[in-house]
Specification:
Layout lengths: L3 E5 L11 H6 L1 H14 L3 H6 L8 H21 L6 E4 L3 H8 L5 H17 L6 E7 L3 H8 L5 E8 L2 E7 H13 L4 E4 L12 H13 L9 E2 L6 E2 L5 H8 L6 H10 L4 E5 L4 H9 L4 E5 L2 H11 L1
Parallel strand pairs: 1-2, 1-9, 2-7, 9-10
Antiparallel strand pairs: 3-5, 3-6, 4-5, 7-8
Helix pairs in contact: 2-4, 2-6, 4-5, 4-6, 5-6, 6-9, 9-10
Length: 306
């Protein structure tokens, strides 16, 4: 019997119009957008559905993306598609925890709104940077980073793709050294800060104050944490892990290997885009991966799984 995981993307997956067809077609999805907008004092429909400059600003992106992912999740659950485990990349981990029953949807959205503000404002704009390193072995990248100051790994995405983070001048210098050492490509990312860098430790500490005010619930199913690439079954660990996650590397590759090793053989990426499906093709081609980014995708998933 197949074992199923729900996967949730991170920042960069957002796009104008995401979730609009769910809002039009599902009362429960519509309710979540409306409730989230009211709770945050934002026009969530305009933020997600219309072309606008705010959607790509971290302090807005995170809440918009988690709202969309959880609205889509509501529809899948209503259609009888239920996961055995969840995981989310970076901010997607909040959607994963909510889907696993560990917090309410509105608390997940509220927390990532605060998280986005802290991540955007902790390091002054222009001082931090991130860079994707393509076509180089992890061990080789880490060996180069050992000789650098102010640069570390942000994301272990999949074989052949690592993201580095840190002070802008150091990241740019390191990118040149990585190319000289054999990287196929290095791509500076269009982000507003050095995410998943030790520079964001103060943001994590501040976020912990919000986490301590939040009610968490016993998990109905496990989720996999970015920080350790391990399944979490005890919700009591979650506050500390989410604090650490802000400044720690996202171990996505290791997380997927862990899930596959536990027998998970079917994955549904929930949210705009197909980034996580692309990673999975490089991690393991023997598992099934579905995408739900539009209303028509729901029928494909239901038809494939039910």
């Amino acid at each position: 019997m197949s074992k199923l995981a729900f996967l949730y993307p991170g920042q960069g997956a957002q796009k104008a119009g995401m979730g609009a067809d769910f809002y039009e077609s599902s009362e429960s999805a519509r309710d979540l957008y409306d409730e989230a907008g009211k709770a945050l004092g934002l026009d969530m429909k305009a933020l997600c559905f219309k072309e606008n400059a705010l959607l790509d600003l971290t302090e807005y992106t995170q809440a918009a993306l988690v709202t969309t992912c959880l609205a889509m999740t509501r529809v899948l659950l209503e259609r009888g598609i239920t996961p055995d485990i969840t995981a989310g990349l970076s901010l997607g981990e909040y959607a994963a925890i909510a889907a696993a029953g560990g917090m309410t949807e509105l608390d997940a959205i509220r927390l990532v709104r605060r998280r986005g503000i802290l991540m955007q404002n902790t390091v002054p704009e222009g001082e931090g940077a991130m860079c994707a390193v393509i076509g180089m072995e992890t061990e080789q990248i880490e060996a180069v980073l050992e000789r650098q100051e102010g640069v570390s790994v942000a994301n272990y995405n999949c074989p052949g793709q690592i993201v580095i983070t840190g002070k802008k001048d150091s990241v740019e210098k390191t990118a040149e050294e990585l190319k000289a050492a054999g990287a196929k490509r290095t791509v500076m990312l269009n982000v507003s800060g050095p995410f998943h860098s030790p520079l964001l430790i103060p943001a994590g500490e501040e976020l912990l104050r919000e986490l301590e005010k939040t009610t968490f619930f016993p998990l109905k199913i496990p989720y996999v944490t970015n920080v350790l690439a391990e399944r979490v079954e005890d919700i009591g660990r979650t506050r500390e892990l989410l604090m650490q996650q802000v400044s720690s590397p996202v171990k996505w590759l290791q997380s997927m290997e862990q899930m596959i090793g536990e027998g998970i053989d079917t994955f549904i990426e929930i949210g705009p885009g197909k980034t996580l499906a692309g990673f999975m093709r490089k991690i393991n081609r023997n598992v099934k991966v579905y995408n739900v980014s539009s209303w028509t995708d729901v029928e494909k998933v239901v038809g494939g799984l039910c």
